[in-house]
């Protein structure tokens, strides 16, 4: 950035330069330190998944070992795992689409219209996240039996939507609040309906927000365990349930558990990398303003 | 920007009607409200009803729920174990969540402002988010192993810098701190992703205007970045705080509330009352106290944010 060059007084400029360098180094230090802290346990997990089962959980761990893909081969060959994985991808993917379709327009309305008791509505929406899942799972069990949703993919999609809806509404409302209303006003002057303005102007401007809540929603649903445990039995079993099946009452199959956990990271990481460019592409409306 | 405003005012001045829709907002907000209604009201009323009943379904003399007034709540507030768990929560939630949100914000801004290469940015963002994708029980177990007093890697590293290591997991406050570390490791990605998205949507033109006026980077941060992100930071805080109220899995595997019952948090205690002692009525009462605490915290925080900020 060229700010410093336009400032008069070279000594002041120098000071500013060193200070900025220091800040930059500090910021990079934060990133570097955290990268290491994140990587170390991950390395442990990954290495556990590459060890034969006898060696996986030894303490102190064997830092040097002969890696084997045996655990992963077993996973891929297990039809239970493949089914559960595919189930989860389908259910979680559908729930993310649905929760965005429901939550984003709602957030827009809460941001732009004068809603009576707006704050109460917002708090109420957030209250769906308030009770611990363990407290709501039993009534849902009864309701699901009643409505034939037990062990159905649709039922699980609805549960995932319910987990994430409040998050989507709250975060997206904040994003919409940050987008100047003049943008829509301009569109409405040109005869667009409010809905068209929302679709064509506001949604593209809020892209980083939409994709960051999409990723977070995906993750929350992807790692959800309790609802899957209580509300499914065969047809709609999510992958988390399969992962936890390696935790027995007496012993834990650590190498398989680690392999399945590592495998669970892959789709979310791919999703994140795939949508990464949208996370940073919300700047288009800045251009609109300038022109 | 000025041109659009002028034209709108002109339009209003010459009485060209701007189209109004009454139905649109209802159609847009409706599905969300219906969903929330379905997933909150039913379970909430059911557990509220239970909280005023005595119900111990697994006891030998099985009884249907019987009404016992505020008995469950009265029991709760005289129970030392509950208060201990509440105090633990103040420490765990207060310090842990603050650290998570501040660290997440710092990482997001550093990533956005200081990492030039796109591939490195993508890589780091993904890396920081990866712990969130690991099943909490597994993450808990990894940290339990890392923090073991003898042979754990954390004490090994502390040993290298001349410290004799800490008795993690063997005392109340260190145990809670261990939980905090594991939880921060896993969930810093949530504030990170929200704030990163927020920073990305601040138009460059705002910074350019500030630069033309000679604002330093610090001033830009104070006057543009912070106010723009304030609400999102608050929301990240609230979301993590509500999750802290529900914190369970990692506690279950790392300390199991131990030593003794010293590191129990409210939800874990609810689990003990509900599914180990099978006193469902009392567990429901506990759930409601936790829920109300959660919402109270949120309202206080929200009010604080709104009086502080100019958003």
3D structure, described in words:
Chain A has 14 helices and no strands. Chain A has helices spanning 3-6, 10-49, 70-77, 79-112, 118-127, 133-146, 153-177, 182-189, 194-205, 207-222, 226-231, 239-244, 254-279, 284-290. In chain A, helix 3 packs across helix 13 (254-279) and helix 7 packs antiparallel against helix 10. The two termini of chain A are 21 Å apart. Chain B folds into 2 domains: 28-71, no CATH class; 80-309, Orthogonal Bundle (MetI-like fold). Chain B has helices at residues 2-13, 23-51, 71-77, 80-114, 118-129, 136-147, 153-160, 172-187, 189-200, 204-212, 217-245, 249-254, 266-276, 280-308, and strands at 53-54, 66-67. At the A-B interface, helix 2, helix 4, helix 5, helix 6 and helix 7 of A face helix 1, helix 2, helix 4, helix 5 and helix 6 of B.
Structural class assignment of chain B:
mainly alpha
Separation of the first and last Cα atoms of chain A: 21 Å
- Describe the global form of chain B: globular
CATH class of the largest domain in chain B: Mainly Alpha
Mean residue pLDDT of chain A? 80
Helix and strand element order of chain A: HHHHHHHHHHHHHH
> Strand-residue fraction of chain A?
under 5%
- Structural class of the helices, strands and pairings of chain A? mainly alpha
Task: Determine the N-to-C terminus distance of chain B.
Answer: 20 Å
What is the second-level CATH architecture of the largest domain in chain B? Orthogonal Bundle
Report the radius of gyration of chain B as a whole number of Å: 25 Å
The low-confidence parts of chain B are 1-6
Put simply, the count of helices of chain B is 14
């Amino acid at each position: 950035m060229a700010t410093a060059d336009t400032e008069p007084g070279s000594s002041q400029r120098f000071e500013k330069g060193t200070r900025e360098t220091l800040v930059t180094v500090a910021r990079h230090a934060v990133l570097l330190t955290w990268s290491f802290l994140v990587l170390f346990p991950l390395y442990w997990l990954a290495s556990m998944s590459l060890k034969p089962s006898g060696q996986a959980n030894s303490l102190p761990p064997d830092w040097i070992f002969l890696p084997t893909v045996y655990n992963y081969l077993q996973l891929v060959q297990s039809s239970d795992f493949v089914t559960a994985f595919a189930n989860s991808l389908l259910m979680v993917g559908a729930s993310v689409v649905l929760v965005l379709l429901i939550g984003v327009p709602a957030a827009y309305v809460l941001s732009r219209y004068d809603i009576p008791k707006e704050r109460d509505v917002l708090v109420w929406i957030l209250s769906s996240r308030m009770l611990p899942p363990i407290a709501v799972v039993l009534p849902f069990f009864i309701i699901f039996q009643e409505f034939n949703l037990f062990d159905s993919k649709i039922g699980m999609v609805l549960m995932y939507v319910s987990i994430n809806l409040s998050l989507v509404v709250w975060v997206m409302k904040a994003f919409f609040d940050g987008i100047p209303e003049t943008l829509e006003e301009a569109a409405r002057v040109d005869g667009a309906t409010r809905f068209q303005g929302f679709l064509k102007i506001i949604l593209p401007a809020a892209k980083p927000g939409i994709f960051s809540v999409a990723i977070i929603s995906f993750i929350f649903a992807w790692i959800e365990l309790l609802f899957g445990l209580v509300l499914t039995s065969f047809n709609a079993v999510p992958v988390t349930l399969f992962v936890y099946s390696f935790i027995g009452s007496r012993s834990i199959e650590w190498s398989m558990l680690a392999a399945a956990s590592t495998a669970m990271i892959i789709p979310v990481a791919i999703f994140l990398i795939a949508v990464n460019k949208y996370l940073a592409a919300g700047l288009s409306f800045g251009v609109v303003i300038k022109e | 920007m000025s041109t659009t405003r002028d034209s709108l005012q002109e339009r209003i001045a010459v009485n060209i009607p701007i189209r109004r829709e009454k139905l649109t907002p209802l159609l847009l907000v409706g599905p969300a409200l219906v969903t929330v209604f379905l997933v909150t009201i039913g379970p909430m009323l059911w557990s509220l009803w239970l909280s005023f009943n005595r119900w111990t379904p697994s006891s030998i003399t099985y009884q249907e729920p019987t009404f016992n007034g505020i008995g469950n709540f009265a029991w709760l507030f005289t129970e030392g174990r509950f208060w201990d768990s509440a105090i633990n929560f103040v420490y765990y939630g207060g310090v842990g969540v603050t650290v998570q949100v501040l660290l997440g914000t710092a990482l997001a801004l550093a990533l956005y402002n200081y990492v030039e290469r796109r591939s490195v940015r993508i890589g780091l963002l993904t890396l920081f988010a990866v712990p969130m994708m690991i099943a909490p029980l597994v993450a808990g177990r990894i940290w339990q192993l890392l923090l073991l007093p003898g042979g754990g890697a954390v004490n090994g590293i502390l040993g290298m810098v001349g410290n004799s290591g800490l008795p993690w997991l063997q005392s109340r406050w260190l145990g809670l701190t261990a939980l905090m570390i594991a939880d921060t490791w896993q969930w810093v990605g949530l504030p990170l992703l929200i704030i990163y998205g927020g920073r990305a949507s601040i138009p460059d033109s705002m910074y350019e205007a500030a630069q033309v006026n000679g604002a330093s980077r610090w001033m830009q941060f104070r006057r543009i970045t912070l106010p723009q992100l304030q609400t999102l930071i608050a929301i990240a805080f609230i979301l993590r705080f509500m999750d802290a109220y529900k914190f369970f899995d990692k506690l279950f595997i790392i300390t199991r509330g131990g030593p003794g019952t010293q590191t129990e948090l409210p939800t874990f205690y609810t689990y003990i009352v509900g599914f180990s002692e099978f006193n469902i009525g009392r567990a429901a009462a506990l759930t409601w106290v936790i829920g109300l605490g959660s919402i109270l915290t949120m309202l206080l925080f929200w009010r604080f944010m709104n009086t502080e900020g100019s958003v």
